């Protein structure tokens, strides 16, 4: 049953904005702008370095940075504590794992993705470094999950879910076969598969794929399909070209 505290809410808007570089959307501004009409369209503006932002009309709050957004949504709307805990230790352990995701998984997986897939020059020592850092993160998680189902307590929480998107794309990040992406990390694999089997995750990925296809974007890189490389795409943005796809 829905809680009275979260009925009759207006939809929360989600935006992707370019963090650095020229924006090709007319009148686009930083997500902290009070004029939402000038923000980039989240599907028409394609990003190189993106910043996730939300606008919550229920509280008149604009917020960016994924970790801060997760914490806000949990504190504001998870009134039944479905994905969190009330206890002192559990709350701080959840925050600990979220901080590890933001400082460890996100940056290292992102760097591995860039140098494996997008960088114009293959730099073996750099690729090795970031692939090893990715595996180090998996090793920390695998060790902690030994004998456990979830990171904190006896249920899935927002801390577990925070790791799901990047881990789901490891094969695309380090260019390995999908069945090999968790090789050597059986606890992480079982944990990941428990979350990825959820209907809500499958539905989200189907929606994402449909929106990407609708906008003519590559599912793996997010760039418009007509650009053959990330360098070509960056050059078009720098030149002020309209990089949106017409499909």
UniProtKB/TrEMBL annotation:
Residue intervals passing through the bilayer: none
Pfam families: GST_C
Catalyzed reaction equations: RX + glutathione = an S-substituted glutathione + a halide anion + H(+)
Keywords tagged on the record: Transferase
InterPro entries: Glutathione-S-Trfase_C-like, Glutathione-S-Trfase_C_sf, Glutathione_S-Trfase, GST_C, Thioredoxin-like_sf
GST C-terminal domain mapped to chain residues: 87-223
EC number per UniProt: 2.5.1.18
Family the entry assigns: Belongs to the GST superfamily.
Protein name: glutathione transferase
Organism for this UniProt entry: Monosporascus cannonballus
Top-level taxonomy: Eukaryota, Fungi, Dikarya, Ascomycota, Pezizomycotina
């Amino acid at each position: 049953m829905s809680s009275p505290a979260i009925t009759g809410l207006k939809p929360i808007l989600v935006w992707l904005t370019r963090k650095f570089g020229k924006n090709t959307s007319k009148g686009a501004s930083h997500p902290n702008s009070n004029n939402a009409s000038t923000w980039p369209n989240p599907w028409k503006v394609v990003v190189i370095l993106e910043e996730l932002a939300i606008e919550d009309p229920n509280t008149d709050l604009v917020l960016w940075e994924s970790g801060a957004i997760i914490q806000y949504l949990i504190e504001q709307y998870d009134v039944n504590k479905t994905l969190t805990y009330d206890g002192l230790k559990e709350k701080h352990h959840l925050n600990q794992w979220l901080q590890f995701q933001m400082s460890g998984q996100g940056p290292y997986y992102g760097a591995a993705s860039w140098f494996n897939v997008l960088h114009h020059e293959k730099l073996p020592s750099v690729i090795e470094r970031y692939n090893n850092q990715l595996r180090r993160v998996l090793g920390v998680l695998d060790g902690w999950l030994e004998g456990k189902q979830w990171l904190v307590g006896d249920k899935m929480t927002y801390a577990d879910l925070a790791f799901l998107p990047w881990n789901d794309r490891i094969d695309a990040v380090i260019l390995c076969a999908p069945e090999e992406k968790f090789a050597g990390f059986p606890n992480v694999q079982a944990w990941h598969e428990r979350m990825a089997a959820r209907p809500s995750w499958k539905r989200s990925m189907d929606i994402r794929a449909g929106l990407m296809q609708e906008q003519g974007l590559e599912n793996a890189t997010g760039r418009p399909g007509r650009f053959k490389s990330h360098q070509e795409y960056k050059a078009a943005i720098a030149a002020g070209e309209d990089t949106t796809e017409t499909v």
